[in-house]
């Protein structure tokens, strides 16, 4: 039975609220807050279980905020494996300006990890990887995490025969090695290459550089509402975005729902381009849920039925 193991080295307690209008130097009365467990891998695990695949979430946990994340996750049908760390888990504040409809996100840096804490995380990942067919590392790395972390995770995935999927910020991408798939945004590719990447050809070339450097076999370039660009060593395909009406969501975690759906589809043996189509549907479906609540399976299936056929260059 397919099983997904996710890793979140820098989880967050997501706090969502509203203000009538965002103003400088003013006391702004917020609406009723909503609290969600957050961070890339946690979001991926929550979405994967909604899509019918069992998941285990390994994540660091420290202080009151870490305990709150753990208690919130108790409501989800996944196996939570918190790894205790000394410093508190970070918080993320998401505020919607009711006047403009704009969403503002304030994200704290997270705890500083000591070397022994990172080693404990790797030990827990190793212990849980034997039961997994897919290992997903998603989200930013906290301060103190070593450049060798992704290499160690790659060796764990190879040892247990897991496909490795990585979705991390652009600054950490050069550390990744031996992944099956990475999912940078165009902005992250720009930051990584230092080039403007003004068109599709430049984006494909930048993605193939990652493949040539053995970072991954497949690069899925996220294009937001426009969909995604799927690049392998010898093929490239456009996957159109899925339009959705304005909903109750802010889009927080939509990229993680996309990764979850791609991972779920791959564990079921789908071709990569169909898996990314499913992923774009899941990312759009996450726009219809409040806070950091994952996509709903019925929304994903409905939107996937509306996706356009994949085109290639």
UniProtKB/TrEMBL annotation:
Keyword Transferase among UniProt keywords: yes
Cross-referenced Gene3D superfamilies: 3.40.1190.20
Domain Carbohydrate kinase PfkB: 16-295
Record keywords, A-Z: ATP-binding, Kinase, Nucleotide-binding, Transferase
Presence of keyword Kinase: yes
SUPFAM superfamilies to which the protein is assigned, alphabetical: Ribokinase-like
Protein family per UniProt: Belongs to the carbohydrate kinase PfkB family.
Protein name from the UniProt record: 1-phosphofructokinase family hexose kinase
Organism for this UniProt entry: Gordonia amicalis
């Amino acid at each position: 039975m397919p099983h997904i193991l996710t890793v979140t080295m820098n989880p967050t307690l997501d706090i969502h609220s509203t203000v009538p209008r965002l103003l400088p130097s003013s006391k702004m009365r917020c609406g009723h807050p909503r609290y969600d467990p957050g961070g890339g891998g946690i979001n991926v695990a929550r979405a994967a279980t909604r899509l019918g695949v069992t998941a285990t979430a390994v994540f660091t946990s420290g202080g009151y905020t870490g305990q709150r994340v753990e208690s919130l996750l108790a409501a989800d049908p996944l196996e939570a494996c918190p790894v205790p760390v000394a410093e508190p888990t970070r918080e993320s504040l998401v505020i919607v300006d009711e006047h403009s409809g704009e969403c503002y996100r304030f994200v704290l840096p997270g705890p500083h990890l000591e070397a022994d804490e990172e080693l404990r995380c790797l030990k827990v990942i190793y212990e849980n990887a034997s039961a997994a067919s897919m290992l997903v590392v998603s989200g930013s790395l906290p301060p103190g995490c070593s450049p060798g972390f992704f290499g160690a995770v790659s060796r764990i995935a190879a040892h247990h025969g897991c496909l490795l999927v990585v979705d991390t910020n652009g600054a950490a991408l050069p550390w990744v090695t031996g992944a099956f798939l990475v999912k940078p945004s165009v902005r992250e590719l720009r930051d990584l290459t230092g080039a403007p990447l003004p068109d599709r050809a430049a984006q494909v070339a930048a993605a193939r550089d990652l493949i040539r450097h053995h970072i991954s076999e497949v690069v899925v370039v996220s294009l937001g509402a426009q969909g995604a660009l799927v690049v392998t060593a010898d093929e490239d395909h456009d996957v159109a975005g899925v339009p959705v009406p304005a909903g109750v969501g802010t889009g927080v975690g939509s990229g993680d729902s996309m990764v979850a759906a791609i991972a779920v589809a791959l564990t079921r043996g789908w071709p990569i381009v169909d898996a990314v189509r499913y992923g774009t549907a899941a990312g759009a479906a996450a726009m219809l849920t409040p806070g950091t609540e994952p996509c709903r399976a019925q929304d994903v299936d409905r939107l996937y039925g509306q996706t356009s056929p994949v085109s290639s260059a």
